[in-house]
Amino acid sequence: MRAAVLEAYGEELAIEDVDSPEPDPHGVVVDVEACGICRSDWHAWRGHGEWADDRVPIGQILGHEPAGTVARVGDRVSRFEPGDRVAIPFNLGEGSCPQCRNGHGNVCEDGYALGFEETVPGAFAEQVGVPHADFNAVALPDAVSTVEAAALGCRYVTAFHALAHRADLEAGDWVAVHGCGGLGLAAVQIASALGATVAAVDVREAPLELATELGADATVEAGDGVDVPAELEAVTDGGAHVSVDALGRAETCRNSVDCLRTRGTHVQVGLTTDAERGEIPLPMDEVTRWDVTIVGSRGMPPSRYDELLRMIDSGRLEPGALVTREVALEDVSERLAAMSGYETRGIEVVTEF
Ligand SMILES: [Zn+2]
Ligand SMILES: [Zn+2]
């Protein structure tokens, strides 16, 4: 089968003919019909993560936001059969550790990150293997297309889990979203659908226009000389109840914490770059003084997909609205390169393999 393989950090991915995956006894193999291209792929492609001993190995097939149709199933799989349409979370659990058993498969103690580890080759390929499929794979309702399901990717579900479960967002809250890439735009649409009033922040005009279309009530164009927390405090009449750093730079994280009102919650969903290497100074005395909560959020447990799929089914959420471009496998390298200059907009999806 054809696959896009990481041969050298920052160099064009090689389109190679590789062996098709065989399912583990507990796994399935999926014909990939759509796979989102994500900033996490960009981080992997650039070789980031060595500071956390988390660098993606050379030879890896990237791609972790797939949706498609089950082609083959292992002997011990009971929930799926060939022909079933599925979405695959990137944060795969093994299904039996205390976290998995308590519904937190996204932080499985012995889990896998699809497309980032040798044991789980990714989905920039014609087929992808999914371990522990009964636990991990998510059956798609007819109303959700494969492209929409790929748009759920890691970004949309990450934003949903961050807002609905981790920040415990309430209707009427002000939500600030820092960084309007795919993850930030998903947060805008979801926060709005959950009943919040949303302020979107970015340095670029085009994503802010898209944020407005997706439900942002206010926008702040950041940039030289702009005091983002002060602007947001004015817009939100006292600060955000919940603020999301959807980019992962020192400045966006700091602005997110600084723009909160008393007892506000900051959610970190963006991963840092090689400038921060995971370390960002924050005003912790202020966090203490004002009962501020800081939480992290990664992906979403497979057990919580139902809530999100019901909201899509009923038309309250439209992940497809974030899809701005469909491309072929050969185009992935060029689209990753475009992310270096923040030139992409919304979510781009591979649909030709
Ligand atoms: Zn587990
Ligand atoms: Zn992703």
UniProtKB/TrEMBL annotation:
Gene3D superfamilies: Medium-chain alcohol dehydrogenases, catalytic domain. Its cofactor is Zn(2+). InterPro entries: ADH-like_C (IPR013149), ADH-like_N (IPR013154), ADH_Zn_CS (IPR002328), ER (IPR020843), GroES-like_sf (IPR011032), NAD(P)-bd_dom_sf (IPR036291), Zn_alcohol_dh (IPR050129). It comes from the Archaea. One of its GO terms (molecular function) is oxidoreductase activity, acting on the CH-OH group of donors, NAD or NADP as acceptor. Residues 10-350 form the Enoyl reductase (ER) domain. It holds the Pfam family ADH_zinc_N. Keywords: Metal-binding, Oxidoreductase, Zinc. GO terms for biological process: protein tetramerization; small molecule metabolic process. Belongs to the zinc-containing alcohol dehydrogenase family. This is Alcohol dehydrogenase GroES domain protein. The lineage of its organism: Archaea, Methanobacteriati, Methanobacteriota, Stenosarchaea group, Halobacteria.
